[in-house]
Each structure stands twice: as structure tokens, then as C-alpha cells.
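User: Could you check the structure of this?
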Amino acid sequence: MASPLFRFALSLLFWAALYMASGFVSLELDDPSTRVAFVWLPAGVAVSAFLLTGGLRRWAVLFAALLASRLVLDAWAHHDVLRSVVIGCISLAGDAAIAWLLRRYARLGDDLYAVLVLIGATVVVSAIAAALGVGWLSYLRTVSFLDTVWVWWAANVTGVLVPAIVIMSWTDVAGVPQRLGARAAAAGLVAWLLLGLCAWYVFAEMTPYTGKAALVFPLACAPILLAAVMSVAWGSRGGALALLSLAAIALYYAADNRGAFFPHGLRPGEPLLLAQCYLSATALLLAFLWVYTNGRRPGGAAANTPAAIMYQYDPASGGLAWDGDPQAALGLDAAPLATLDELLARVHPDDRAALRAHWAAVAQGQPGAPLTLRVAAARGWVQVLDRGPTAIGGAAGATVVGTWQVKRQGTWR
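Assistant: Sure, the predicted C-alpha cells are below.
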């Protein structure tokens, strides 16, 4: 069995290679007038890499690996080294910030809220990164700030949303049907074939001249509807495959100035905006559709509120009783949790003293303020909120009673 360090090294190589490959594609998608990429696809790859790579302690190594990959890509494109380092650091810092905000503020069991956090973080952080990056380039007098800052921002927003939604949907094993029925399999396959055929016809064979504009744009919506069919029929991976297929076809022909993004009469840069709006809208539609279908299955995001369970702690004996199964309710490790010592063995080392002092103070009659702590779970850790513990007196002494509610999951081990 491979060691954790070896697996981590393989994951670094995978993300660095994927980052470089997506960057190569983006550099090939330059607008003929402004010479800027339609989308900066490595941004979404980097955000996904940070989200899926362990804890924050590994992010520094991942950051260095992605930066090295970007520098190799810029060297291939004959870009200035100093500018590549500065722009790469700004871009990757923004990607890491988006991932951190999503992990920090997303709530377990609320996928809709997570999508909204992703959108908000992407829009705001991309604007800050665009202002910093373009501001530095304009200081060097290489670009115009006002003409370029919105291009950076739009390319980064689309570049985060499309690849990140594809990757996160594909890795969402829970969103994949356990058994794909014959009808669902057939419906998804037919939708995929029709999506490819329709997208090819719209972006390769049709040019939106004045006489065809009324026909081209309605047809451009057909692949989006077919992508939705694939998402419903095949689950999260069907939606990821649909979005990837549609984006590949649309961007391939857009690079050759063909398709619905290049009608006559548009000013330089406007075809870029059309492409970004089209792909971003498709990605968001599939993301919200995934939230809907995810919530309909047992235990899905919209099916219930965050899990919670009540507990009773006896300070005199150290005994701990739960109103239910903490393993099933909170997703904790299947280990005995009948005493405080057994529970503390599963609590994050940095939170053990706080929990012990918290319950001791409540047992002595002090008000029980909410306490957030991390507890080992089957796939990493669960962050729980110890809500409003209180002491109930009795003949044998006080008993601490409270509720643990899940806040979010992550990885710390």
C-alpha cells in the first residue's frame, strides 16, 4: 500500500499537470483583437486542488507546485520571468482565498449555501486579484488599467466556475446514482449525443449574420437543456461530463472566430463577454440543478437541517450518554463514546482543553456559551457546535446537558 507521502506527491504531480494543460488551452484561446484568454481555466483547477488537498498545512506545498507549473507554462509562451512570478502569485493567492472562504463558510448539509459562497467569493476575490494584477501591469505601462481589469475579472470568474464545478461534481461520489437504470442510462446517452451534435452545428456550421441571429441563439440554448437532462439522468458526473463537452466544443470553435460568439457589428472584446456569460450561466445552472437533485436523495443537502444530537455528561463519574447514535447522527468514527476520556481521544488536540474547561465551568453553574470544536470522523473531521449547555442539579450532583450540531466537515489528520 502506498504511503500517504507518496500519494500526496502523486496528487501534486496530477494537479500541476492538469494546471499546465488547462493553462495551455487558455493561452490558445486568445481574442484576436485584445489578445487575452476567453477564460483562465487554471483558476478553477487551482481552486479545486486547494479544496481537495488535505488541510491548510499542505497548501503551501501545493501553491509552490502550481506556481512552478505556471512558470514552466509562461516560459513556453516566452513571457517575462519577473512578471510571470508576480502575476502567478497574485492569481494563485486569489484561488487559495476562494477555496479558503468556501471551506470556512460552507455549512455541512447545505449545498445551496456552498454554491452561493462559491459565487460570492469568486466574484469578490477575482475583482481584488484583477485590480492588483492589472494595477501592477499598468504601473509598468504594459496595459491600460480600465481596458484590461474587467477582462481579467471576467476571465477569472468564468475560469473558476466552469472547471471547479466540473471537478467538484465529478468527485462528488455521493451524487452518483448507486444503480443506473436502463432508461436513465439511455436518456443520458441520447442527451449526450444530441448535445455534441447540436453544439457542433451551432458553433461550427452557423454564423450569426443578421438573417440568422434569430435562429442561432435559440439553438445555442438547446445544449444547455440537454446538459440538464444528462445531470438528472446520470447524476453529478453526468452534469460534469455535459459541461466539459459543451465548453470544449464552444471554446474550440471560438478560438477560430466561429460560432454564436462572433456576430457582425460587435466591438473588440464583446465576443469574449458573450462566451464567458454563456459558459458561466451553463455552469451555474448545472450547479443549482445538482443541489436540487442532491437534496432529493436520502440525507441530501436540502432534505434536512444540519444534524444534531443531545448529550448528558456526569462530571462526578465522567460518564457520557447520548440521545441517539453519535456515529450515525454526526458521522463520527465508530469508537466508544461513553466517557469524557473516550470522547477527548476523538477531539482535535487543540480543542481538548477547551471542551474540558467548558463543561467544568457549566457544571459549576456558569452560563454555557456556544463552543466550536473538531471531532474525528470517518473521512477526516467534523466541526460541531456545542450549543447552550446547562447544568441540571440532582441528588448525586449536577449533570451537564446540551446539544451538538454539525457545522461542516474537513480534513485535519
